[in-house]
Design brief:
The complex is a heterodimer. Chain A is mainly α. Helix content of chain A is 46%, strand content 0%. In chain A, helix 1 (21-29) packs across helix 7 and helix 4 packs antiparallel against helix 5. The longest helix of chain B is centred in the first third of the chain and has 29 residues, at 131-159. Classes of the chains: A mainly alpha, B alpha/beta.
Chain lengths: 112, 603
């Protein structure tokens, strides 16, 4: 029956149950990603954001909350153009972050 | 000439040489067959075809002679090192050649023993002296002297490389040292052994006086056998270790040159052409000083010479590290005497990487982009990602186009798709190709006949990978220079304004554009040159080529590059790349401007 509205599933994050290993592994490879201040410069400049909602800030956030489908969706349109790297005030090597995230996403073992 | 061993034509001392020679020839033959076998079928056919095409065949012979024997490229770069290398290579070649001529002239039936030309003076006794004989003997001594001078320089260089203009050189591996010392030993031993037998076989200005001296010193002439043995053993050791040392570049380069002339490119990261490239690296270490990452003595082991060494050793961890760190500026290739393409080698290694998320762009519609371009557009300007982040460049380009009265439209006024080059630099060709397909569709649908670009990163991939038919792909530095020459842009030159032009890696070494930007800069002010310029300009350090180099580590690279540009104390740094611009802006003490901005200010 269509009421014209529906209940959205709970978006609560239980940090005890979700998998945060990807973020930890990426931070182990490049500790620089921990310095993100979430300013959103990367989101504002992103070429792919119009297509997949890509934003490095949100990717980092989603990884820390275990929302991996969102990570995958956002990364799926990244063109690696490097604008996020250019504007990052913390000098985070975002291209390295993205490539490593793409590589390690499905628990593919390996060094940086 | 009389054959002293007329019955057998053999003496056991030749065995070490014979074993080494047979080993190295077999190794090289099978190595060559393997490499040709590993080439893709299309490339193999192309290679064989090039060998029978007179033009390329002649080019092969010429290049092998000039590069492998005379070392012309090295002469141009450093005459002292050039002399050192060509004296040994060409001198040795001449000795082998003259040895064969001697055998063919005097003992033609012995030519099938291939140690005869090498040890000719041991096997013959001089019956009567002829004019040909004396000329040949003179030439033998002459070239031996040349080689010995080269060897003497090599020994000095090993202990004082700075005298030869090399700040840093490679650390030798154990087998490299064995090869090196045996190579040094070969020629003095040859001189000694030929001198000991000079009263039997005859000799010339070098060997005859030495023979007299030895006879006077030792009192008899029975000492020659140990030196001939030592000479043969030194040759044998050198040839046995050769395949496992950097001296493998000697035979490998002779295969590399014809393959390169056939237009073959690296496809597989380790097999086929890549294998020849790795083997052709002489390990000289010129790339260490050239590498922009090596400032402050950092990353010394991440330059191309070490990449080649690690590939030879199969050290996967180091191969990945070295390949990911490189800025892909291409300077190592520029200074390399053999021309081993460092960036291409690294890109091939990067393409080995497996990813679990593979971006795709099938969800991106191109129609909105096509619809936004007015019909009848002649000049289509693609600003590209980097230019959008340096809007001053875009503004200047558009302003200049207006001033020149050009009919143009912008392909990505509110940001478009990426050109694909940054993705390709990460070794992800499949993704890059998809972006190329989308952009090609937009450009072809626009009906333009000139595609104008202000970013050399875009320009390079458009030039190399896009198939746009008759559409002219042009970088703004070239385009504006043409407009100035055609009189459509009137630039007021300010004599007192000193401008230095920085060659962006992708535009200069990448696409070979050096002169047009300089002409355009000269139209606005007085052009001064950096200390290292044109093909040897130093990367700004901002390159998207490096994946792992952190941004703190790049500061030293950028400062070094700025330092180099400030040699002529210019009033401003002019570049033609948005990425160089924003990188330099962080650390330069003088204003940094794009070429378009400089021209626009003076228009």
């Amino acid at each position: 029956m269509d009421f014209g509205f529906s209940l959205s599933p709970s978006s609560a994050v239980n940090l005890d149950k979700v998998d945060l290993s990807l973020y930890d592994r990426l931070a182990a490879i490049d500790p620089g990603i921990r310095t993100c201040i979430g300013c959103g410069s990367c989101s504002a400049t992103c070429t792919a954001s119009a297509y997949s909602g890509m934003s490095v800030r949100k990717v980092l956030l989603a990884m820390q909350r275990g929302r991996m489908q969102e990570v995958e969706k956002m990364l799926s349109n990244c063109m690696l153009c490097g604008k996020c790297t250019m504007v990052c005030p913390r000098g985070i090597n975002t291209r390295r972050l993205i490539l490593n995230a793409c590589r390690l996403y499905a628990n593919v073992e390996g060094e940086a | 000439m009389i054959d002293r061993f007329a019955n057998s034509g053999f003496h056991p001392f030749v065995l070490p040489f014979l074993v080494g020679m047979i080993f190295v020839l077999t190794y090289c033959f099978f190595g060559m067959v393997r490499i040709i076998w590993e080439l893709p079928g299309k490339d193999r056919r192309r290679f064989f075809l090039s060998l029978v095409t007179p033009r390329t065949a002649w080019k092969n012979v010429k290049d092998i002679f000039l590069n492998c024997l005379i070392h012309v490229k090295l002469w141009k770069r450093n005459p002292v090192l050039g002399y050192m290398h060509s004296s040994i290579a060409f001198g040795w070649f001449m000795i082998i050649l003259l040895g064969h001529i001697e055998v063919m002239l005097f003992l033609p039936e012995r030519i099938r023993f291939f140690y005869y030309p090498i040890f000719f003076n041991f096997f013959v006794a001089e019956g009567e002296s002829t004019i040909q004989g004396s000329v040949l003997m003179f030439l033998m001594d002459f070239f031996l002297l040349i080689i010995l001078s080269g060897i003497a320089m090599a020994i000095v260089k090993r202990f004082a490389s700075l005298w030869f203009g090399m700040r840093r050189t490679t650390r030798l591996s154990f087998l490299d040292s064995v090869g090196l010392y045996s190579l040094w030993a070969i020629f003095p031993l040859r001189l000694l052994s030929e001198s000991f037998t000079a009263h039997i076989s005859g000799g010339s200005f070098l060997t005859v006086p030495m023979n007299r001296m030895f006879v006077w010193f030792f009192g008899n002439d029975m000492n020659y056998l140990p030196t001939w043995w030592a000479y043969s053993i030194a040759l044998g050791i050198f040839m046995i270790v050769l395949p496992f040392t950097r001296y493998m570049h000697i035979p490998a380069e002779m295969l590399l040159i014809p393959l390169r002339n056939a237009g073959i490119r690296i496809i597989h990261p380790r097999k086929g052409f890549a294998r020849v490239q790795v083997r052709s690296c002489p390990g000289c270490g010129v790339c260490i000083d050239a590498c922009p990452m090596s400032v402050k003595k950092e990353n010394l082991k991440d330059c191309t010479v070490y990449l080649n060494r690690q590939i030879r050793r199969g050290n996967e961890k180091r191969i990945a590290e070295i390949s990911d760190k490189c800025l892909l500026c291409g300077k190592c290739t520029e200074v390399c005497q053999v021309g081993v393409p460092g960036p291409e080698m690294r890109l091939a290694q990067r393409s080995l990487r497996k990813y679990s998320i593979n971006p795709h762009y099938s969800n991106i519609q191109v129609d909105p982009f096509i619809d936004a371009i007015p019909t009848g557009t002649r000049v289509l300007y693609f600003a590209g990602c980097m230019t959008h982040l340096t809007p001053g460049i875009k503004k200047s380009v558009l302003s200049l186009l207006d001033k020149a009265g050009a009919s143009y439209s912008v392909m990505d006024p509110d940001g478009g798709l990426c050109c694909g080059r940054p993705m390709m630099m990460a070794g992800r060709d499949e993704q890059a190709r998809e972006m190329i397909r989308l952009n090609t569709e937009i450009i072809r649908a626009s009906g333009c006949n000139v595609l104008l670009l202000s970013c050399p990163i875009c320009y390079r991939i458009f030039k190399e990978k896009y198939k746009l038919g008759n559409i002219r792909i042009v970088h703004h530095s070239v385009y504006f220079n043409e407009l100035i020459h055609a009189g459509r842009l009137k630039v007021n030159r300010e004599e007192a304004l000193k401008l230095v032009y920085h060659d962006p890696c992708e535009l200069g070494r990448g696409c070979g554009i050096y002169d047009e930007p300089r002409e355009a800069v000269s139209a606005a002010g007085t052009l001064v040159e950096a200390r290292q310029n044109h093909a040897e300009s130093i990367c700004c350090g901002g390159s998207l080529g490096s994946i792992t180099l952190s941004y703190e580590k790049r500061e030293g690279i950028t400062r070094n590059s700025v330092d180099n540009l400030m040699a002529g104390s210019p009033d401003a740094i002019v570049t033609a790349c948005p990425l160089c611009l924003s990188t330099f802006n962080k650390y330069a003490d003088v204003p940094v401007k794009d070429l378009a901005t400089v021209l626009d200010e003076k228009c």
